[in-house]
């Protein structure tokens, strides 16, 4: 697989505070990555370092095959971090022309990208007259001008109203559908769950997990069960070696699996022991539950 | 290089305030020709400034470069704000993310400064040439093209001053404060000179040292031209004052300003490189 970004033992200290601690990960072409972490976990700092605006304390990173300088590599990257920053006195076209000059690409894509984000009608309005949602969409258009190899988005829906959030997510889905690699930093878990295939989880600047969303926890899921004789069921499950924790909460027993087991065989086993279930559901933890488990337990 | 200038041009020319200031600056440069129109006609006293020899070659090179350099403050405002606005709009961050290197960023500003200085110099050359050809008493080619060192001195004076403005813009990050700092610095140089001469050393050594101060060294490149006027010289002779000052531009004066310019540009780069945005 083609590597887009390699980060090796990256560390960033702000005085006494270590914002990023010995962070390593790689980004492969074609995947949609989410960087997850609570506020202050070092997401923005990490992005700032790989985007050449924050100086690293130690460690290194390399773009693509590592032969191009960072600023040349960034010409093949589209990135938006935090708030959209443009020249307030210039209109959309003028701002995008400037970006074309910086990225050294022809100005032919401006119309296409403005239409993609739905700003073509407002192309002659000055940037300062835009709403936050429009500013954010202009930022996406600007990041796409060079048809980037990778699109980096830092909290793209922060501060937007529900309609704005929806618009941005639709745009991200379209871009992801075109096969562009995306790196999305967010603390909104449902956002990441909806669009990302891989996650990088940070806490206090440390990498807790990198990999596909599905295999985040070595977990086999859990059962939610109900029956007439709850005590007997609980006792039986606790004796079974396949189950770990068994909880009885609000008339429903939740039993966590230690090894793979399907609902059918559990139902059969219990029926043979004389327990008739009125409710059986097998579930995997949601991203939120997995995330909280990871960030709390470590 | 052209690309960097184009980038800076888009930023400056779409900003109405900068555009107005740049245009007014060049209009003012041309308006020096209006001095020719100063004419007093009060009965027996007739005074026409253009007839007093201020437009004589080669004196005109000295006079015009000195007077027009006073207008540089207009461009100073443009330059300080083009630097500090990048910080207040956070566009510097976006520029870097979009793939401009920190070196290119500084270089684009420096190239703009050099272009401003170069265009100003050409402007002053053309205006002075026309004024001189119209009003000068001497029109021999050898006289017209003598004392031309005031033009490179003018160019360097502007580049040096604007580099200082760039540096202040990066250092202070707020245009109003940076301009305030510029004024403060001007006063500070005089205060330090005063203190040195008064307490630390003799006035002669203080004067010698003063020539190495950044702003002083820039203004020292083109010394005041008024005492060179024959009318003023005549008055000086009558009251018995020695008015034989040295007006020439020396190579070491060039060198001092070049060194300061290099220091300011380098410091701007170091500041930008070290800072997290």
From TrEMBL, chain A:
Entries under PROSITE patterns matching the protein: ABC_TRANSPORTER_1, ABC_TRANSPORTER_2
Highest rank taxon of the organism: Bacteria
Stretches of the chain forming a coiled coil according to its record: none
Signal peptide (from-to): none
Pfam families: ABC_tran (PF00005)
Keywords noted in UniProt: ATP-binding, Nucleotide-binding, Transport
Protein name (record): ABC transporter ATP-binding protein
Organism in which the protein naturally occurs: Flagellimonas profundi
Automatic annotation (TrEMBL), chain B:
Keyword tRNA-binding annotated: no
Domain of life the protein comes from: Bacteria
Name of the protein this chain belongs to: ABC transporter permease
PANTHER family per the UniProt record, alphabetical: INTEGRAL MEMBRANE PROTEIN-RELATED, MEMBRANE PROTEIN
Transmembrane segments: 20-40, 60-83, 110-134, 154-172, 179-198, 250-272
Keyword Calcium attached: no
UniProt keyword list: Membrane, Transmembrane, Transmembrane helix
Organism placement in taxonomy: Bacteria, Pseudomonadati, Bacteroidota, Flavobacteriia, Flavobacteriales
């Amino acid at each position: 697989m083609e590597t887009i970004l390699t980060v090796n033992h990256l560390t960033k200290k702000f005085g006494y505070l270590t914002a990023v601690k010995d962070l390593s990960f790689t980004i492969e072409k074609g995947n949609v990555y989410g960087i997850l972490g609570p506020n202050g976990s070092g997401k923005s700092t990490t992005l700032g370092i790989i985007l050449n605006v924050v100086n690293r304390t130690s460690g290194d990173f390399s773009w693509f095959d590592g032969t191009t300088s960072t600023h040349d590599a960034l010409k093949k990257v589209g990135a938006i971090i935090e708030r959209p920053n443009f020249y307030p006195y210039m209109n959309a076209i003028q701002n995008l022309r400037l970006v074309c000059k910086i990225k050294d690409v022809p100005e032919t894509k401006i119309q296409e990208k403005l239409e993609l984000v739905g700003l073509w009608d407002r192309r002659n309005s000055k940037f300062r007259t835009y709403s936050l949602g429009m500013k954010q969409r202009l930022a996406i258009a600007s990041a796409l001008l060079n048809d980037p190899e990778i699109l980096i988005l830092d909290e793209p829906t922060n501060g937007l109203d529900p309609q704005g959030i929806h618009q941005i997510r639709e745009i991200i889905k379209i871009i992801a559908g075109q096969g562009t690699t995306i790196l999305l930093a967010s603390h909104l878990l449902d956002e990441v769950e909806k669009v990302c295939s891989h996650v990088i989880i940070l806490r206090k600047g440390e990498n807790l997990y990198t990999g596909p969303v599905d295999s985040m926890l070595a977990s086999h899921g859990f059962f939610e069960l109900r029956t007439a004789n709850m005590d007997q069921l609980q006792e039986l499950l606790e004796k079974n070696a396949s189950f770990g924790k068994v909880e009885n909460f609000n008339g429903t027993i939740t039993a966590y699996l230690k090894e793979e087991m399907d609902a059918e065989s559990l139902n059969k086993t219990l029926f043979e022991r004389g327990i008739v279930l009125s409710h059986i559901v097998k579930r995997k933890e949601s991203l939120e539950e997995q995330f909280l488990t990871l960030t709390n337990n470590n | 290089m052209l690309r960097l200038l184009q980038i800076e041009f888009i930023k400056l020319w779409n900003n109405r305030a900068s555009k107005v200031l740049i245009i007014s600056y060049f209009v003012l440069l041309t308006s020096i020709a209006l001095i020719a129109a100063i004419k007093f006609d009060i009965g027996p006293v007739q005074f026409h400034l253009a007839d007093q020899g201020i437009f004589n070659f080669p004196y005109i090179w000295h006079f015009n470069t000195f007077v027009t350099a006073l207008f540089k403050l207009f461009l100073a405002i443009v330059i300080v704000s083009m630097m500090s606005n990048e910080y207040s709009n956070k566009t510097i961050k976006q520029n870097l993310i979009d793939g401009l290197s920190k070196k290119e960023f500084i270089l684009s500003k420096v190239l703009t400064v050099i272009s401003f200085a170069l265009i100003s110099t050409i402007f002053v050359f053309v205006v002075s040439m026309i004024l001189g050809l119209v009003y000068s008493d001497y029109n021999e080619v050898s006289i017209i093209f003598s004392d031309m060192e005031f033009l490179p001195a003018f160019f360097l004076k502007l580049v040096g001053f604007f580099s200082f403005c760039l540096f202040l813009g990066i250092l202070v990050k707020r245009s109003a404060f940076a301009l305030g700092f510029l004024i403060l610095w001007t006063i500070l140089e005089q205060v330090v000179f005063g203190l040195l001469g008064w307490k630390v050393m003799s006035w002669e050594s203080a004067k010698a040292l003063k020539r190495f101060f950044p702003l002083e060294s820039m203004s020292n490149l083109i010394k005041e031209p008024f005492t060179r006027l024959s009318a003023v010289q005549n008055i000086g002779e009558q009251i018995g004052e020695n008015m034989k000052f040295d007006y020439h531009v020396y190579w070491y004066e060039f060198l001092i300003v070049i060194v300061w310019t290099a220091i300011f540009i380098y410091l701007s780069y170091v500041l930008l490189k070290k800072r997290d945005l």
